[in-house]
Design brief:
Number of strands: 5
Order of helices and strands: EEHHEEE
Oligomer: single chain
Distance between the termini: 36 Å
Largest sheet: 5 strands, mixed
CATH superfamily: Beta-grasp domain
Helix content: 10-25%
Structural class: alpha+beta
Strand order of the largest sheet: 2-1-5-3-4
Low-confidence stretches: none
Number of helices: 2
Radius of gyration: 12 Å
Shape: globular
Length: 86
Amino acid sequence: MNVRIPTPLRSYTAQKSVVEADAADLAEVFEQLDRQFPGIRFRVIDEHDKVRPHMKVFVNDESVRDLNTKLAETDEVTIMQALSGG
């Protein structure tokens, strides 16, 4: 499946905007990403295994926060980082 990477995290993926994962659930996606791109998981998932508040994860068009979300081969995972400003 495709995993879309936001611009601020592309320094971990050699500037790739899309990477591949083969996972049964979202937790496994982030484990695989961290094996391929060390440190990326910690930027999205906190020490309590929760999606960080300033991060959004979408499976296809649905926002999800549960890392146990089951995935199909055809799903697309998108990681987004919230923007702030004043």
